[in-house]
Amino acid sequence: MTPRELIDVADVPGGPPLRLFRRGGDFMIVLERNELMSTRMHGSEVALGTMACDRLAGRPAAHLLIGGYGMGFTLRAVLGRLGADARVTVVELVPGIIAWARGPRAAVTDGCLDDPRVTVEMGDVAATIGRATATFDAILLDVDNGPDGLTRPANNGLYGNQGLADARKALRPGGVLAVWSASSDPAFARQLQRAGFAVETVRVRARENGKGAMHVIWFATKR
Fold first, then answer.
1. Between 186-194 and 161-170, two packed helices, what is the crossing angle to 10 degrees?
2. What count of other Cβ atoms lies within 10 Å of the Cβ of residue 162?
3. Which of 47, 85, 167, 206 could be bridged to 41 by S-S, CB 3.0 to 4.6 A?
4. Distance CA 155, CA 152 (A)
5. Which residues pair with residue 22 across a beta bridge?
6. 219 in helix, strand or coil?
7. pTM (global) more than 0.85
8. What is the mean pLDDT of each run of 10 residues along the chain (223 residues)?
9. CA 46, 52, 55: angle at the middle one, nearest 5?
10. SS3 (DSSP) at 30
């Protein structure tokens, strides 16, 4: 088996560092002992982007917010579905993630960060959401392994009552909050409903070929 090679380490504000590994042609981002994402298994990240766009019903000049660039699979999926008049704001907390995308992972990034429809903001996506009022047609969150602050405790606020109220306020009428998770959480689905969303729970495979672990995406539409 090809050994895994450590490429770089990136600091996470308020949390443990992330490590970028390469094995052959594949990349992995690891938090402590948890493999958060890899180029081998990205089907559900793609689905987060394509399914969110499908639920926007062809809105003109759509404005999407993506929380967490990750490996960029969600961003590229969104750009492939949206028209030239769309806007995508990507908020990334960890500078090293963007540095990796433009450096050792540039071939995987495939220029998506330089698309004229894309704006990259460095910072906390919760702060961006909290400042917004009826700004976004969709908010896509993939900053943890689910609705809890795995990467850093401060992320818990995104999934609590205030965080969901902020997300609802930041969405335009009929806008969609999409949250990716590695596993099911019925209590979170109920919390989304109490926060004023119509909730759809979708299960998708980790790999684009329909194999791998089953992941969950909640699509919560502002009522």
1. 60
2. 12
3. 206
4. 6
5. 5, 27
6. strand
7. yes
8. 92 93 95 89 94 92 96 96 96 97 94 97 96 98 78 77 96 97 91 96 87 92 95
9. 140
10. strand
